[in-house]
Amino acid sequence: MLKAYITRLSPFSQRLFLTSGQINHGVSTVFLPRSTRISVKQFSLTHSSFITKAHGNQSPSISTAKRSSQPDGSIPAGGWFLLIIPVSTLALGLWQVFRWRWKLGLMEEMRNISIADPVPLPQDLSDIETLECRKVKVKGEFDYSKQVLIGPRPLVYPDAKESDGGRGVFSGSGVNGYHIITSFKLEERNESILVNRGWVDTRNVKKYDHVDGPVEIVGIVRKTENRAPFMPKNRPGQNLLHYRDVPGMSQTLDTDEVFLDLYSVQGVDFSKARSESIPVPRQTRVTLRNEHVSYFITWFSLSAITSVMWHRRFIRRLNLL
């Protein structure tokens, strides 16, 4: 009966019938008479051969992409090179810490020197370079015909302590005035030096009193002051200067290149100097630029940020954004 049914089918339907039977039943064979047997060898497809051919036709680029997406845990050479950034910024931060500690020690040393007992002025004035911020004692007489002004300058309170708002030898007030620089003729020596007699208010700059006759004074040795950025330059020969230029002042007033900030005058009370329009002495303002704290905070911050970025990119294999 099956034979008669298949015989009545068209040749195309016979092929479909036999093919579907092999797919559904594995390698089963339908026996037909020789006259009606149809060769289906070229259409035989088993489940295993279908899977094999499907794997054979797979694009090799797909498997390659899967392998490349698996990190092997190694850090590329560029990653090790970028590690220089956090390491170098960390080293710079540590260097700024050492600089900060050194600057604090230097400021303390200068403060101790400025309050030490006075020493005699050296016979060879060239040795004055080794006595910066040191008190020296000299005898002589002021020559009020040779004077220049430096300013405007804030008033430094002579008797204030560091606890009084940071004023005193290391700071100043917001009140502006001028420093009066006067030639001082040394006793028994054919030499003259520059003495900063002190601070006077702008309104009383021409009303200051004088200390007449030979006196003994104590002053603090100061060197030439560097011109600050954007500060106007001193003009040679003028009586109003903007910064402490010891060579320029000595040339203008015909003195040796020695500059003292007046600390005291023997027998003179300066406790009411400002109210009596007398120049206020002790205007030594020892300042050292100390911005190392902001520097090492900046370097340490950069080191921390770049370290986190490096760890995220090369250790955790995450995107930076």
Shape: elongated
- Mean of the pLDDT scores? 77
Helix content: 25-40%
Structural class computed from helices and strand pairing? alpha/beta
Radius of gyration: 48 Å
Strand content: 15-25%
The count of DSSP E runs of length 2 or more, i.e. the number of strands, is 7
Largest beta sheet: what is the strand line-up? 2-3-4-7-5
Give the helices and strands as they follow along the chain. Answer: HHHHHHEEEEEEHEH
Tell me about the largest β-sheet: 5 strands, mixed, barrel
Oligomer: single chain
| Tally of contiguous helical segments | 8
How many structural domains in the coordinates? 3
Key descriptive features of the protein:
single chain, 321 residues, alpha/beta, 3 domains, five-stranded mixed barrel, 7 strands, 34% helix
Notes on the protein architecture:
The protein is an alpha/beta fold and 321 residues long. The chain has three domains: 2-56, no CATH class; 74-118 and 287-321; 134-265. Helices cover 34% and strands 19% of the residues. The protein has eight helices and seven strands. The protein has helices at residues 2-8, 11-24, 47-56, 60-68, 77-82, 84-114, 246-253, 292-315; strands at 119-120, 135-154, 176-186, 192-201, 215-222, 240-241, 259-265. It has a five-stranded mixed β-barrel with strand order 2-3-4-7-5. β3 (176-186) and β4 (192-201) form a beta hairpin. The longest helix has 31 residues, at 84-114. The protein is elongated. The two termini are 75 Å apart.
